[in-house]
């Protein structure tokens, strides 16, 4: 990135508002949204797992992979670049019209291309039986996602998180209801497609409710500024999606749809904490990190990393401890239990990596973030090629080893991009959660050693989970009283609703 380009897309100056309080409350709003959205997705996933075969769930995973990649390519990262763009409100609104035009053109063209090539894609992924219909259904709504994305990113730039979550939350719930209603009627995997189409269209309509519609427009200078930041940002995101789904592709090609079904269920469950914590925290922190400077940015980076670790550790540890209960969905899911335990550790490390990459992006180094993604992808690809024929447990173990190897240098790069961070302060931030997680794990192991709690079905699983959460919160409150009060005080600050 050249100096002139960096100047055009450098973070906007700090506002007279309280960005730290807005970011904290924004994280709370996004967390609420994340819980609702991911809970809806989880219910749909479990319904599919209970009512469909593992191979059918593998088909869903492959269709979702194509749709996720297409959604990134369909906008070129220009909507996200609006968050980072420097300039007056008038300039940002003008740039938003340009971003909308770019997104509509590229997403529409990509949707048409995927519609025509869906049979070939399905065949290459060994998903001939219904794969083309799934791909077409999940990608036909790309223009709707592009339109909604511009509006929601404008709201994120303004730290207006209360309105930002409305389209996501409501559309996810309605889409889940549609999908579950259809799958219980025997529609099969196309029930998920119908739910996703409903969600995308409703998200676009609700985005127009919470923010006036952005109309198409064009300005060459704005387009250049948006693409100069958005292209590497989108490239890094694309590499992330490919890296997150490379295992799906190789498992499908080498081990088949049945193994992919087992692996994808474990992966999706293990990935829930990542989506509900890491994505939420980094999404709320990114606008503030863009505007903060010096010691404020360094401390914000520490807090983002500390909060992510403190929330991810107990969630992932609990998933690993309760992985055997996956068989409650049916005995056919037993091969997925050791995979879930390993991928829970992978999700924790991946969340820490995500924070580091967000810090790099906010510091104006999206190219470095993309290089880290590329390195992760290459190392993972080579490793998986060696181990994939040994089974899905080996694939999950490879994921853990590779993400650990990439996260450490990414942390060093983030600290270099944001001078002034302190390992001592970070250690103090995460110590309460570490102690509370150990106490929680001991409580779960004690309960698992008792009868009839252990192996007692859904009721016992719910009771164990409840006890684990209570123990964690009690110990966290006792060990980290000062941090607890500081967080509550930050959340009480008034949020800026632009």
The mean pLDDT is 80
Secondary structure: helix percent: over 70%
Oligomer: single chain
Rg measurement, Å? 22 Å
**Spans with pLDDT under 50 lasting ≥5 residues?**
1-20, 490-498
User: What spatial form do the alpha-carbon principal axes imply?
Assistant: globular
Our count of helices gives 18
What about the largest sheet? none
- Encode the helix/strand succession as letters: HHHHHHHHHHHHHHHHHH
Question: Whole-Å distance between the termini?
Answer: 31 Å
Number of strands: 0
- Supply the helix-strand structural class: mainly alpha
Strand content: under 5%
List keywords for this structure.
about 500 residues, globular, about 80% helix, disordered C terminus, mainly alpha
Kindly describe this structure.
It is globular, with a radius of gyration of 22 Å. It starts with a helix and ends in a 6-residue tail after the last helix. Helix 3 (54-73) packs parallel to helix 11 (257-291), helix 5 packs parallel to helix 10 and helix 11 (257-291) runs antiparallel to helix 12 (294-321). It is built from 18 helices and no strands. The longest helix has 36 residues, at 89-124. The chain is mainly α and 498 residues long.
